[in-house]
Every structure is written in structure tokens, then in C-alpha cells.
Amino acid sequence: MFKKALWIIISLVAAFALSVITGLVNPSEKINALWLIVAAGCFYVITYRFYASFIAAKVLSIDEKLPTPAKRLYDGIDYHPTNRWVLFGHHFAAIAGAGPLIGPMLAAQFGYLPGFLWILIGSALGGAVHDTVILFASVRRNGHSLAQIARDEVGPVGGFAAAFAILFIIIVALAGLGLAVVNALSKSPWGTFTIFLSIPIAFFMGIYLYRIRPGKVAEMSFIGVILLLTAVFAGHFIPGSFLEPFFNLSKNNLVLSIAAYGFIASVLPVWMLLCPRDYLSTYMKIGTIFLLALGVFAIAPTIQMPPVTRFTEGGGPIIPGKLFPFMFITIACGAISGFHSLISSGTTPKMIMSEKDIPLIGFGAMLVEGFVAVMALIAATILIPGDYFAINTGLSFDAIAALGFPVERVREFSELVGTEVAGRPGGAVSLAVGMASILSGIPGMKGLMPYWYNFALMFEALFILTTVDTGTRVARFLLQELGSRVYRPLAKTAWLPGNIIASLLVVSAWSYLIYSGNISTIWPMFGVANQLLSAIAFGVGTIVIIKAGKLKYAWVTFIPMIFMFSTTFTASWILVGMFREKAATALSQSEALTYGIDAFLVFLMAALAVVVLTDMSYKLYCQLSGKSEPAGQKTD
After folding, report:
1. In terms of Cα–Cα distance, which of 453, 511, 456, 86 is closest to 263?
2. What's the mean pLDDT in 307-316?
3. What is the pLDDT of residues 112-131, one digit of tens each?
4. pLDDT at 297 over 70
5. Of residues 133, 143, 40, the one with CA closest to residue 560
6. SS3 213
7. Would you state the torsion angle of the CA atoms of residues 20, 24, 25, 30, taken in this order, to the nearest 10 degrees?
8. DSSP reduced 3-state for 334
9. Which residues contact 81 (CB under 8 A, 6 or more apart)?
10. Region of 189 on the Ramachandran plot (φ > 0 left; ψ -120 to 50 alpha; else beta)
11. φ and ψ at 397, to 5 degrees?
12. How far apart are CA 518 and CA 432, in angstroms?
């Protein structure tokens, strides 16, 4: 009885908070940011308790007695049984990249309400289901990648197209994530120093846990957190010291450094660097988000951005397109992200110890990421709208005022943090300003805004880089799968020469896109690529559910699949036209070539997705009608 009463109270609190946020209660008043935290927290707790349990028990029929690939196929390199909390840390760190931070920051130009509702509903009813179903499918299929599952379940044509689509998509996605790291660490020796030290700390943690003190997770965690906090504190002394030139890197040097790290993390055994570094980063990520939430509770800031702005019809200074479809591709991670399917069918299923951990890792990590996105949205929308646009665009203050949003405190922010923040598009700087404003408002923290600003930049880079390293490893898996059709030894992930060659090719591809592009070209491509991948993953998940004899539950993935395909095909059409127009009016041949390549990549990804959708539709028709497939198409 007590439990029922508790869930009823939580539901009522969530309903009232949502009514305040949407303007059903006191519509003429500005809302307090506390309501967004209360609504998100209550809604996510309810969703995890009931919807995740329904998915695990009814839709997937999870069986904890079945041995997982980590145990059956153990090799000590990629297949490695891992403690559930360590694996949760790795998985969360891998999926929570730039999207939940940068996406909500950029999409705030549409107002706080569209982004908040999309994050809330998308993550709970779409993203968490997406991640959980694909993780389960991969665990039941020896840790196979999404591309391999598509070949097995959809057919050779759709599977082959899906493999190439996924490869293109992941490279574009890694470029978008890597660019966000470059923007965050640019001219930030403090942040670069701390990120650099996290690598040897992770090496030590991996060796400590698996060689010096096997299984001592608590000891390893305590030592790792202390060392990381020491690195954060020591970074404050780097600016102005003799070490500053070594860590105050240019964009090109940052690209090379990130590429080198991605290559090393992709080749080394997963327990040695990748998993402990991601686990370590998770403490910093969740700890900082928790601190931000405490800051919001302490200062109770008012949301300054209106619920909906005039830019929902297009013409915005940050995102030129309309609310639909561009908000749904701008906020990807944090709501629904196809990149997650690569992690859920990449490193995580090869390390999970028991199927009973799937809801915690698949569903739970996605809800935590949704909460991160809500905090990023709060950091964006507590800024005065004119200040928000002054930071995220190159427009003059007069031009911003002419849009109806006068600039008020940007010069003050620049003085407080000790660097110019106006005209710094991309979302990283405005997020740091918003976070610093909240954290410096905590009692006892006043006057520390420059420290919090630099800490926030470091936090963003740490947050995002953990996705780049895991994504590179997953792309290496996929490239080896494709390459094995030409040279069979490439299929052996324990074969070092194959690992090195595939990793070099992947790293070279995404680092070139970072080197030649910018936020206005790469981020829309990243959004389309990410959401096309989520649509493909939802389709594969739908077929997996139907073939398991669970047709009546297929709606949990089928409905999100239809929405994501509709959204991303619309966005692809618009982006191809936009890039072609920019190529035609480019001022130089190299610029025209870059836009031409961008248009071709978006068209190619969309075309491959059409092939996959067509083959999946035929497969679904055969399953539902009982019609047998042609002999060459049978995959059962």
C-alpha cells in the first residue's frame, strides 16, 4: 500500500510540474528552472520503474540464467566480463557525448518548451527503448554489431546497405563529436592538461583492477577519483606557467592529438585504457551534473528564454531551419540517438556479465543522459536571450537587438571569466557560461566564476572525448566485418595488424572531416546521420521483436521508427539543397568542394537508408503475411 501511495504522489508531482512548465498553471509568469528538474526527475523514475520493467519482462523476456558472450567468448581483449557498475560507467560515458550538452544549447533558440518536451518524451519512450532492444539483440547474438544483426535479420541487400550506411554515419558522427572537443579545448591549457592526465590515470586504474588488485572495484574507484580531482586542481596552475605552451594547442594540433588518442584507445585491450577511462569520466560527468542540480536548487534561477520563439518558423540566427525537422536532429543524444545503437551492439554486449543488467545499462544510462540534456537546456535558457544569441552567433549587438532580444550582460561575462565570450558559436562557450553562472551562485562559491568557466570547458571535453574513443573502436569492428569479405583474417578482432589498419582508416576519415569543416556544416550532418541510424536501429529492433513471436509488442519500436524516418528524410532533403546552394555561392573552389562533399555525403546516407527501409518493409510484409521469402533472401 505504501509503495502504491508513493508512486501516486510521484505521478501527481510530475503532472503538476509539467502543467507549470507548459503554462497551464500561471501562464503569464516566467517559470523557475526547479520545475524542469522536478518534472524530469519524477518522469524518469516512473518510466524506469514501470516501462523498463515492461520492456524487460514482456517484450524481451530477459533470462539471467543464459550465459553472455563475455563469458562464452572470453578473449581478454574485446570480450571481457565486467562488473555491472563499471560497465554502466563505460556505457554511459560512451553514449553521453556532445549531443546532450551541445544539442539542447543550440536548440534553445526555439524556446525552452519544445526542447524540454522532446528530451523528456524522446529519451523515455524512444531513446531508452532503442538502446535496450539493440543491446539485448546483440547479447543474444554473440555481441554482433548492428550491421551484422541487420544482415542476419533483414537480409543480405538491406544488411549490406545498412553496413555501409552505418560506416558513413559513424564517421560523420565522430567528426561532429570530435569538433565539439576541439571547440571546448581550444585556448584552454587547463582543460587540455586535465584531459591529458586522465589517460595515464586510466592506465593505472586498468592495471590496478585486473593485475595488482583483481576485482577491487571500490579501491580502484577511490584512487581514480582522487587522482582525477588532483588533475583538475593542478590544471589551474598551468596557464601562465612554463607548461602552458605544451597544452595551449591550436585547432590543428588538437585534431592530431585527439586522432592519436582515438587510435591508441581503439587498438589497446578494452580493459587497459578504454573501460577504466570511461568509468573514471562517468564520476566526473554525473558528479558535475549533480552539482549543477544542487546549484539550481540553491539559486532557483528563472528561465529567461520564452517558451516558444519566433524562430520556430525558420530564420533563426543559430539554426536557420524550422522547428520541424531541425530541432529533432539538433537534439539527438539526450532524446534519441542512433550512435547509441553502435555502443549497444559494440563494446557493451561483449562485456556484460548477465542479462539482468540490460535494463540498468541500456534503459538506465539513457535516462541519466536525458537528465544531463535537461541540465544543459537549463544552462542555456537561464541566460538573457540577447546574451545567448550574442555568444552563439557572429551578429552585432544591434542586429541581435533588432531581432527583439537586446544584449545585456555579455561584456560583464567576458570580464568575469577573463576572456571574450561574444561571437563564439558552437554551443561550448555558452554552455560554459551558463554552467559557471549556476555553480558560482552556490553559497560560498561567489567570485569563483572564472574557475567554474574553465572547469566547465574541461568538463565538456571530458564528457565528449569518451564517446570518440569508444566510437572509433566500434567503427573499427564494423570496418573489420566489412573487410573480412575481401580478406578473412580481418574478421579476427584479436589480430593486431587488422586492428591497426582498420583503426588508422577510421581515425583518418573522421579527423579529415574535422580539419576541413566547421560547426555549421558538421553539426547538421551529424544530426541527420545520427537520427538516420536510430531509424535503422528501430527497424532492426522491430524485426527482432516480431521474429521472436512478440508481434503485439512491436509497436514499442515501430512507432518511433516511423517518426525518425519521416524526420530525417525531410531534414536530408533540406540539407542537400542547402549545401548545394552554398557550394554554388562559395567564394573559393576549396569551400565549394567542401560543401559539395557535404551534400553528397548526406544524399548517400539517405539513399542507403532508403534501401534499408525498403528491404525491412519487405521483410516485415513477409513476416506478417506468412509469405515465404526468395531462397537467396532467407535469413532465419
Report:
1. 511
2. 92
3. 999 999 999 999 999 999 99
4. yes
5. 133
6. coil
7. 60
8. coil
9. 68, 70, 71, 74, 351, 353
10. alpha
11. -60, -35
12. 20
pTM of the entire predicted model: 0.85
Mean pLDDT of 319-348: 88
Contacts of 601 (CB under 8 A, 6+ apart): 168, 172, 525
CA–CA gap between residue 173 and residue 339 (Å, rounded): 8
Outline where 492-588 has alpha helix (H). Answer: 496-516, 519-547, 555-584
Q: Which three cell numbers stand for residue 254?
A: 588538437
Nearest to 471 by CA among 503, 449, 439, 496: 503
Candidates 340, 313, 339; CA nearest to 326 is 313
Q: Are 537 and 508 in contact (CB under 8 A)?
A: no
Helix (H, G, I), strand (E, B) or coil at 216: coil
Burial 274-284 (b: 16+ CB within 10 A, else e): bbbbbbbbbbb
Residue bearing cell 528530451: 119
Count H helices, E strands: the chain?
28, 0
- Please report which confidence band the pLDDT of residue 631 belongs to, taking 50, 70 and 90 as the band edges: very low
Closest-CA residue to 343 (of 174, 499, 510): 174
The residue written with cell numbers 569508444 in the block is 470
Asked if residue 608 lies in contact with residue 168, where contact means CB atoms within 8 angstroms, the answer is yes
